[in-house]
Amino acid sequence: MSFGNRKETRRSNIMMLLEAIIICYVGYLASVLVKYFFGSYFVVVPLVDFASQVGLFTILVILSALSVGLYEIKLRETFRGVIRRIFVSVAISYFIIEVVTNTFLTNIEISQYYLPSYAGMTILAIVIFRYFINRLGILGLGQSKIIVIGAGERASIIEKRMRREVDRFGFELVGFIPIPGDNREEGIQNEKLLHVKIDENFRNFIADNDIDEVVIACDQRRGTLSVEILFDCRLRGVEVTDLLDFMERETGQIVVNLMYPSWVIYSNGFNSQNYLRDALDYSMNCIMATLVLLLTWPFMLLTAIIIFLEDANLKNPSVIYKQERVGLNGVLFNIIKFRSMRLDAEKDGAKWATANDARVTKVGYFIRKFRIDELPQIWNIFRGEMSFIGPRPERPQFVEQLIREIPYYNQRHNVKPGLAGWAQLNYPYGASVEDSMEKLKFDLYYVKHQSLMLDILILIRTVEVVLFGKGR
Known about the structure:
With 472 residues, this protein is an alpha/beta fold. The protein folds into three domains: 3-136, no CATH class; 144-251, Rossmann fold (3-Layer(aba) Sandwich), CATH 3.40.50.720; 275-467, no CATH class. Helix content is 50%, strand content 9%. The strands form three sheets. Strands 2-1-3-4 form a four-stranded parallel β-sheet. Strand 7, helix 14 and strand 8 form a beta-alpha-beta unit. Helix 1 crosses helix 2 (47-67), helix 1 runs antiparallel to helix 4 (114-136) and helix 2 crosses helix 3. The relative contact order is 0.08. The mean pLDDT is 81. It comes from Paraglaciecola psychrophila 170. This is Sugar transferase.
């Protein structure tokens, strides 16, 4: 295991252990406070029963936190996003322990106010703990220190794509080292430049500055980099990372315009490692589609009625519309949606949707914002044409153009299209070839890293989009 991975694993393990201790202590503290404020309702239980309940709740919270990625160091998220995941973890644990207690552990008698208080205090305690750990870098768990070899056009992708503080959450970028052959005109403009030679003294620079990782981002590699020096860094435990791998890891996207065939051939991913997930794919999607249908059918019925009434003065009002899309392996199918545009929206041919599109109806604006227009695609999931999670299917007229203009675009069709996707969460609007290029970076990341855990993360964030109306 590399130094960088060992450090990340150690940090995750320490955080997991400390949070488990905090949750256990909060369990004790909650019992004291409930007894103080609700003494008449407090029932003294045997220590073994009390410890069993606290231990079960602690284990459930830690497992739930693992499932939503709270201990994944490379999962970049705002602090508000971290709070959401903490809330989800504790909510899942609270629900499970309520079911278990009322079903199997009925002999345990405890105040009805205890578990709600315990859950609420746990959320508050972990949020405060995470704030001090992640924002102040205490306990010796600070950021990794990184330098970039190269300050030209390729290196500038870091400056352009990772400008915000949250984009560099988890590492400290010490600076960029210019290399002969770099395109300085299109290169780094506002970042710190380090005029250090990649020679025998380079290892001293690495040691003196406690560098954890070296990112290779020079425009010209042949004849400009000393393989021996980089090899020596690697043997000393310093991570040496290609720019593409670095951007993929830190931003959750693959920089398509910088890709080269050998990187695709030798990199990990682009194949599903979860055989159980593959075998149960259709069954799982059907079960989820059934659950969503049971929860949303009243909203779907109301939406259909409102759309019909909005167009009641037209000769042939249409609530649902079908549109041909490109699916798995390029197979065409008809996607089903609630109509959100005027009936004559494409009288002049297929057009890209745009922000504040004048073709969108009043009802259409609302149902698009909350993604209600997508709900009829549950039928496409039942038919096996779509999954819940995957790249959004595009129209064949646009696909033909995009395949010609964007490298590797066709590779997004190697997985089944989805109702929700990684690209929609990270780049929610696409109205041009340039937008399609940006979305492809996230689509290829999903194709490469598809897994049950990533699907769960996408589902959780999609629920947030729906609840808070962040759709387009």
